[in-house]
Amino acid sequence: MRQGRLGDDRGQTILIYVVAVGGLLFLAFAYFAFAQAAVARNGAQSAADAAALAAAQDVRNQMADGLTDSLGQKDAWVDWLLGNHPVSGTGSDAAARLAADNDATLDGLTPTTEDGFPAFEATITTRFTVGKSVIPGTEGRHAKAHAVAMIEPRCTAAPSGDPKLVVFDCDGGQHWKIDPKKLDTAELPQPNDLFAVHLAE
Fold this sequence. Notes:
This protein has four helices and seven strands, in the order αααββββββαβ. It has helices at about 1-70, 75-80, 90-100, 190-195, and strands spanning about 105-115, 115-130, 140-155, 155, 165-170, 175-180, 195-200. The strands form two sheets. A four-stranded antiparallel β-sheet has the order 1-2-3-7. It is elongated, with a radius of gyration of 29 Å.
């Protein structure tokens, strides 16, 4: 009788051990699946950030060109300087390129505003999937993300003692005096001197 009971105990112990190990393995695979999903989400967010920033940078360059072109027009340059002048470009081509560089597809790019400044919201879908895991369906699931990048003016118009000159101050103590009739020889500010591009918080 004692040997029979001992055999039963050993059998129960092995069964409990198998169940426990199986449970631990399942938890390990489930944790791995969540880690895969987190990696996919991070990749998607990076792609969305890059796409939104690319769009904003592209439009910022257009705004800088618009400012330069308007320097000979009375007071028209101020709207460009303050980011109040509309631009025709949307930055969609640049956004699509950066999304593709990050293995994603640009689903949409929407012009918007943040704190009254021009901004662009990019929505993307990754070309890669979460991958196979113990959770059904992950092998065909793509991650999605969106991001908003804004263009913030860094300069303000300044008083000029000479009405023929365009004068403005920028962040970092930069002071510009430009003669619109001498643009070919004048030192002109770069787009990043005029406008900051960053992700909206």
